[in-house]
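Sorry to interrupt, but I need a hand with the structure work. Could you add the entry underneath, on a fresh line?
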Amino acid sequence: WNAILVSDPSSPAFGGNNVEGAHKALAAPHCSPDILDESGLTDELPYDLIVLPEQAVLDRATARRLEKFVRAGGKLLSTGDSIRSPELRKLLNVKNVRHGEWNDGHVLLKTGGEPTGVDSAWDKLELGAGAEALYPLYLSWDQLNPELRQLANNWPMHGQLDEENPAPAGAPAAVRRRLGKGCIVHICTDI
């Protein structure tokens, strides 16, 4: 059973596009989530997974409840702007966050097949003790070739990856930290 947490008080009633996107991603494989705010985080949470999609505000009390949930065996998935929260950075043990360091990036999934490219701003995170890179981030051609940046956004060229010799960004695309019986995963871009 899954839930999406809307922790940012400036979010629209049901969280806006970020929550809608997370809901669609979970509903597609028939994992329809509950949507809650921090008042729904009780001591006895029935969820296996809580998603925190681009929620830049996470207060200390909510972070403590999420940490308790994870330590008891739960999984927390955060994305994009959620890393702007100092409380989430503490939970993940990441620092020196550089927002929007790259315009687009690629992940080579460990299952093989085609790379997954995301044409969105990627954050660069420095990992502390206990935080580990789950997947490395690779750069697109236009990140490495300044002359390509001068061209208009051209999909046959823009955002492509050299699959034979991918250029590492030097930062993770996704970060994991295990806490107690559970874990936190952060994807370093909006989804």
Remarks:
- The mean pLDDT is 83.
